[in-house]
Amino acid sequence: MRGVVYDGKQVQVVHDLDIRAPGPGDVLVRVAAAGLCHSDLAVIDGTIPFPAPVVLGHEGAGVVEEVGPGVTHVTPGDHVALSTLANCGACADCDRGRPTMCRKAIGMPKQPFSRTSTGEPLFQFASNSSFAEKTLVKAIQAVKIPSDIPLTSAALMGCGVLTGVGAVLNRAKVDRGETVVVIGTGGIGLNVLQGARIAGALTIVAVDTNPAKEETARRFGATHFLNSTESVRDILPTGADHVFECVGHVGLVRQAIDLLDRHGQAILLGMTAPTAEASFPPAAMFLDKSILGCRYGSSRPQKDIALYADLYREGLLLLDELVTATYPVEEFARAAEDAERGKVARGVLTF
Question: Where are any strands of DSSP class E within 176-234?
Answer without folding.
Answer: 179-183, 203-207, 224-226
